[in-house]
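As noted in the main text, all predictions were made from sequence alone. Below is one such record, for Glyoxalase.
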Amino acid sequence: MYQYDEECLTTFLKVQDKIYKEKVAQTLEEADEFLEDCMAVVLNSVKEIKDYWDEMGVDIAGMSLEDIEQSEEVIKLPSGRYLVVES
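Prediction:
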């Protein structure tokens, strides 16, 4: 059983080159392990990402919600949720 759902894993596999110069995972299992190691989180909105980053001490001063959504660490999932991967 995977920690992340199939939507997260398949989307990550398709767009991982947005964050990394080379592929870090080839299979769903590798993607799940990598995301777990990175402590990736799934959030429901850009506002939740902002709040999460605030709590984590990420410097987002001056960033709009659109800027946050366009960050390389943020992957928008087909369902409208967001996968946030620390690069």
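The chain has a mean pLDDT of 95. Residues 6-84 form one domain. These features were considered when defining construct boundaries for the mutagenesis experiments described in Section 2.9.
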